[in-house]
Amino acid sequence: MEDEVKRDQVANIVSALDARYGGSDSYTRLTAWHHTDYHFLRVLYPDHRIHSVERTIHRRSVDTLDPEDRRFYGDGILLDPDALSSVPRPRVYFGFEANHAISNFRRVADHLPSDGLRHWARAIADRMAKRSHFDATWICRDPRLELVPVLTLGHYRVAEVVPIASTVGPGERASPGRVEGEPRTEPRDGCSRIFIR
Predict the structure, then answer these.
(1) What distance in Å separates the CA atoms of residue 145 and residue 161, rounded to the nearest whole number?
(2) How much is the pTM?
(3) What is the Cα–Cα distance from 53 to 96, expressed in whole angstroms?
(4) How far apart are the first and last CA of the chain?
(5) Domain segments of the chain as ranges
(6) Which end of the chain has fewer CB atoms within 10 angstroms, the N or the C?
(7) The pLDDT value given to residue 197
């Protein structure tokens, strides 16, 4: 899975977020993929608040963690909004859309010298692409949450997770107001659509 982590991009994201939010202990990081990004961050930044919001354990979708996984991950995996509400805000969600090797292959395909080769290579990339890791988590489908774009860096997308105003409890900060025409994530849409390409 070494092709799923871009160490330099992750380090730059952490630095940018630390600067934006006022330090490493001032926000909670939510990763879309616990097999790589979550573990990578936990090792490199053991004092940071880091959680995974992926619901796949051992290649199966889960609603609860079995005792062995709970012992291993502790409170590191958040499987639902109740678990999410237990971690401090602001909550910043990040992940990549596609496997980095596939993304790089797509870029190469776009520069091939003939239409036939470009079409053939893009078809291969489409077959190889498994899913958008950024779009695959429950965070993207929960209608009570909104993702506000923060930054895009290389393969990664970063958004702040905020409750939609109608679901905000006493003393909580609601989603910032939207500018007319600004993209908004609907529960059925992929989260990555909020990023203008």
Answers:
(1) 7
(2) 0.71
(3) 13
(4) 27
(5) 2-97+132-194, 102-130
(6) C
(7) 45
CA angle 134/141/28 to nearest 5° reads 60
On the CB side of 72, how many CA atoms lie within 13 Å of its CA?
11
Which of these, 42, 1, 19, lies nearest to 158 by C-alpha position?
19
What phi and psi values does residue 17 have, to the nearest 5 degrees?
Answer: -70, -40
Closest CA to 133 of 171, 86, 100, 167: 100
Whole-angstrom distance, CA of residue 188 vs CA of residue 109: 30
- Strands 50-52 and 56-57 turn out to be unpaired
User: Contact, 27 vs 94, CB < 8 A?
Assistant: no
Show pLDDT as tens, one digit a residue, over the chain (197 residues).
455 567 788 889 999 999 999 998 999 999 887 777 788 888 888 889 999 888 765 555 667 777 777 777 778 888 888 889 999 999 999 887 766 677 778 888 888 989 999 999 888 887 776 666 777 788 888 888 999 999 988 778 899 999 886 544 555 554 444 333 333 434 334 565 565 44
Q: Which are the contacts of 127, defined by CB distance < 8 A and separation ≥ 6?
A: none
